[in-house]
Amino acid sequence: MSPNEIVPPELLTRNSSNGMLVFTSLIAIIVSFAMIYLGKKGKQRWMVWGAYGLIVMALYMAISLMLV
After folding, report:
1. How confident is residue 67, by pLDDT bands cut at 50, 70 and 90?
2. Does 50 fall in a domain?
3. Residue 54 contacts by C-beta under 8 Å, 6 or more apart in sequence?
4. 34 lies in a domain?
5. Residue 18: predicted pLDDT
6. Does residue 39 contact residue 32 with C-beta atoms inside 8 Å?
7. Residue 63 sits in which domain range?
């Protein structure tokens, strides 16, 4: 039996995960803005720079998924 006979094509990972990964990127960006705010308030530079890195990587992932 092939996987297509057991699981319908619309439920396979290739077809359904892109939307969830873009949603995860959106959540990461929201969390990053909270980290930037808290990092600046607490004078924690590592948290601010880590949040900027998270924003860059989340945008990279979301854009690469939307172009596919």
Report:
1. confident
2. yes
3. 28, 29, 31, 32, 35
4. yes
5. 72
6. no
7. 17-67
Per-residue pLDDT at 48: 94
Tokens representing residue 51 in the block: 């949040």
pTM: 0.69
In the numeric block, which tokens belong to residue 55? 């924003």
pLDDT digits (tens, 9 = 90+) for 15-53: 556 777 888 899 999 999 999 999 999 999 999 999 999
Where do runs of H (alpha helix) occur along 1-68? 3-6, 13-41, 45-67
- Please give the structure tokens belonging to residue 65: 């998924």
The contacts of residue 58 (CB under 8 Å, 6+ apart) are 24, 25, 26, 28, 29, 32
Q: Which amino acid is at 11?
A: L
